[in-house]
Amino acid sequence: MLSLPSTSSSISRKKYDVFLSFRGEDTRNNFTDHLYDALKRSGIATFRDDPKLEAGEEIAPELFNAIQQSWCSVIVFSKTYTFSGWCLEELAEIVQQKNVNGHKVFPIFYDVDPSDLRKQKGKVEEAFAKHQERYKEDTDKIQKWRNALTQVANIKGWHLHNRHESEFIGDIVKKISAKLCQTYPVLHDELVGISSRLEQLYSKINIGEDDVRIIGICGMGGIGKTTLARVVYTQMSPHFEGKSFLADIREVSNKCGLVSLQKQLLYQISPNECFNFCNVHEGNAIISRRLSSKKVLVVLDDVDNVQHLKCLVGRRDWFSLGSRIIVTTRDEHLLRSYRIDDVYKPTTLNTNDALRLFNLKAFGGDTMPKDDFNQLSEHLVHYVDGLPLALEVLGSFLCGRDIVQWRSAIERLDRLYREILTH
């Protein structure tokens, strides 16, 4: 995956994730058709032009709109792509959106040499000779096409070479899925230091792989396990046919029992169905039947007993390929004993991020404290040792209080710290 965007960025969801640009007569009924199907199966909203739109001479306005309403464009450069003025006009609009609005561009070199596109030689040179003959009076158009082609051909893309198409397409879908998951963050300034954590976690989740994967998020209380799980759940949800987030499982299980949790899981994934059963064994059977044909995302938050896993996610064959189960817990042994695929262990925040988070809470959204409070903030953060929840609680407690009260809090922490060291 690419590096994550800043947590302070505000990105609105586009109508489409991917705009497919391709030469219809080259790849519509083979490679591009297979790529389109694979993207759709992975839950990626993809625009592919209707063949009827190609009947006219000029590019249809619908295509310009679709490009503008897409997060990225995937351009399938095939042998006769550059012979199509339609394709080159699309390409120019894609580059315009890239340069002005940050539109992402991913070229695929399908049986073409990128250097031929960059240098505009061979078949590409032949194609432009025809365009120049046709558009003698519009040299600006030709130059616009040439510039767009050169710019995109210089982007690192995907090469088919001698690979099997199905494997090649699978890799493309994985990479696009991975990038998309990190592109529509439901993040805000208070989620300090989360970008690097998400990047590490996503590398373990590996959403593009066509398998059933169970990932644990493990660490002490207050380290940010649930926050991470919620962000991942929100970002990844569009890529699944069903989803369920079961919060506070330890507490809910003690109060309401496992059957209640099983029903909650089923209802969240299939909200239009009614489930009546009285014990966990019946629940297990229904979960395995209902979910075995559906690609789902399940988050089990605050698990402290292996029975939670046995009754809610059972075995991998309960789930359809591509499903992901994320488990948050303080007990790493519990995860290892269940033989989950991987464990992510969040670390505490570094000094800069810890100070930023504390200041956000202590100064009502302002990361820069008043001069009188600067050293006091640093002193207080030192005691908390980068634990996110403790930083939030302490910062919120001191928000709006005067400097005398801040110094009093430091004195109490000093005493507590000395008592701990002497015992």
TrEMBL record:
Pfam families hit by this protein: NB-ARC (PF00931), TIR (PF01582)
GO terms (BP aspect): defense response; signal transduction
Database matches in InterPro entries: Apaf_helical, Disease_R_plants, NB-ARC, P-loop_NTPase, TIR_dom, Toll_tir_struct_dom_sf
UniProt keyword annotations, A-Z: NAD
NAD listed as a keyword: yes
PANTHER family in the record: DISEASE RESISTANCE PROTEIN CHL1, LEUCINE-RICH REPEAT-CONTAINING PROTEIN
Record-level Gene Ontology MF annotations: ADP binding
Protein name: NBS-LRR-like protein
Domain of life (superkingdom): Eukaryota
Annotated ranges, domain TIR: 14-180
